[in-house]
């Protein structure tokens, strides 16, 4: 089925639903928060629906503004409330993740939720069995861009972005902007079309950029300097590896999510084609991977870090003791994995 035909089905499901819930993945980023907020604002503003957002964890402070007024429940703080909402939901829309397990703490509750389930996502290999209707494409920048194409097909919007509530329009612009790293990657013709149409519809992009990128706390900048000078390690194989121990977060007073973006920085170096950053988190490491074209961050995440994601931006974890005996072995593990992967990659190309 084409997007248009599926959108007609979704529109009918929206009409018949009385309680609609939007959900996204653990440790939500701008695309997760933006897509949920945009869908909620549309459903409430244009369709008069009871729409609420459930996220497994809180969003980073700089992105909180997109969810203002969205009836948000953060499940890790209010699990019973999230469970009650899911039990009475008759349409569940899952955004920016391809399998329920990525919702971590609420994954089982989503699986057992009796509602009709719809997916709107841009990752490879969606678990189609878990959903009743799937909007899935990897040829878009973000879940926000895919959601935008779906919303344009809604009968009341009818390809006129100016009919979207302003809160939905700015949330869509936000998620697209953060997932493209402010137009640095994953930009398609449709991405620029969307940006152009949302601008024409009145989105104040300067204000969004100010909120997303120019609202840091000073200690975050100091942490960035420390990361670049004392933690990032550039290897001869063309990979950069970084291990950020718990003490790094304590010393700089960083909140969860405040190292967002650090992993991209080593790629600014000419011959660095892969960046791996591991953050110590409750007895294991969360791993972020970024790569330049020709090196698949995704296959490395799948192969070595129990994870996945996009070709050039992926994530996963290092488990103790499954992968390494203790935290002190993380840096050496990253060096080995990176050197082996880059060597194989160079042999293949
Ligand atoms: P980040 O480095 O920003 O945490 O994650 C980058 C991308 O990697 C995310 O957009 C997501 O697609 C993917 N990703 C991150 N963590 C995981 C994980 O644990 N499992 C899978 N399958 N994908 C992940
Ligand atoms: Mn995304």
Explain the layout of strands and helices.
Elements: H1 3-16, E1 19-23, H2 30-45, E2 50-55, E3 72-74, H3 79-87, E4 91-95, H4 107-111, E5 116-121, E6 133-136, H5 143-152, H6 166-179, H7 189-200, H8 205-213, H9 218-231, E7 233-234, E8 239-244, H10 246-252, E9 274-281, E10 284-291, H11 297-304, E11 308-309, E12 313-318, H12 330-348
Parallel strand pairs: 1-2, 1-4, 2-3, 4-5, 5-6, 8-9
Antiparallel strand pairs: 7-8, 9-10, 10-12, 11-12
The structure holds guanosine-5'-monophosphate and manganese (II) ion.
Residues 31, 96, 122, 142-143, 179 line the site of manganese (II) ion.
Mean pLDDT metric? 97
The CATH class of the largest domain, by name, is: Alpha Beta
Helix/strand structural class: alpha/beta
**Distinct compounds present:** guanosine-5'-monophosphate, manganese (II) ion
How much strand content do the residues show? 15-25%
> Can you identify the CATH superfamily of the largest domain?
inorganic pyrophosphatase (n-terminal core)
Order of helices and strands: HEHEEHEHEEHHHHHEEHEEHEEH
Main sheet makeup: 6 strands, parallel
Number of helices: 12
Task: Provide the gyration radius in Å.
Answer: 20 Å
Ends: how far apart?
Answer: 37 Å
Strand element count:
12
State the strand order across the main sheet.
Answer: 3-2-1-4-5-6
Give the helix level as a range of percent.
25-40%
Shape: globular
- CATH level-3 fold name of the largest domain: inorganic pyrophosphatase (n-terminal core)
Task: Using the 3D structure, state the CATH architecture of the largest domain.
Answer: Alpha-Beta Complex
Number of domains as seen in the coordinates: 2
């Amino acid at each position: 089925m084409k997007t248009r035909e599926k959108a007609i089905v979704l529109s009918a499901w929206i009409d018949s639903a009385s309680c609609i819930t939007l959900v996204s993945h653990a440790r939500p980023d701008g695309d997760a928060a933006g897509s949920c907020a945009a869908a909620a604002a549309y459903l409430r503003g244009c369709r008069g629906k009871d729409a609420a957002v459930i996220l497994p964890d809180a969003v980073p402070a700089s992105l909180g503004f997109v969810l203002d007024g969205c009836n948000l429940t953060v499940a890790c703080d209010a699990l019973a409330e999230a469970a009650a909402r899911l039990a009475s939901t008759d349409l569940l829309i899952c955004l920016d993740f391809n399998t329920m397990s990525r919702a971590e703490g609420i994954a089982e509750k989503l699986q057992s939720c009796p509602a009709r389930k719809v997916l709107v996502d841009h990752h490879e290999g969606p678990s189609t069995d878990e959903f009743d209707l799937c909007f899935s494409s990897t040829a878009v920048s973000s879940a926000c861009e895919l959601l935008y194409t779906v919303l344009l097909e809604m009968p009341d919007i009818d390809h006129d972005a100016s009919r979207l509530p302003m809160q939905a329009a700015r949330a869509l612009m936000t998620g697209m902007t953060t997932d493209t790293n402010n137009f640095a990657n994953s930009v398609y013709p449709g991405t620029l079309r969307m940006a152009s149409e949302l601008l024409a519809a009145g989105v104040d992009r300067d204000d969004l950029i100010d909120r997303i990128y120019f609202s840091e706390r000073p200690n975050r900048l100091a942490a960035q300097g420390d990361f670049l000078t004392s933690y990032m390690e550039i290897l001869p194989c063309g990979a950069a590896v970084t291990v950020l121990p718990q003490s790094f977060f304590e010393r700089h007073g960083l909140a969860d999510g405040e190292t967002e973006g650090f992993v991209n920085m080593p790629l600014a170096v000419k011959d660095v084609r892969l960046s791996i950053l591991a953050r110590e988190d409750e007895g294991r490491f969360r791993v972020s991977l970024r790569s330049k074209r020709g090196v698949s961050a995704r296959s490395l995440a799948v192969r070595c870090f129990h994870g996945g994601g996009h070709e050039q931006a992926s994530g996963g974890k290092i488990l103790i003791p499954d992968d390494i005996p203790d935290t002190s072995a993380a840096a050496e593990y990253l060096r080995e994995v990176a050197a082996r992967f880059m060597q194989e990659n160079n042999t293949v190309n």
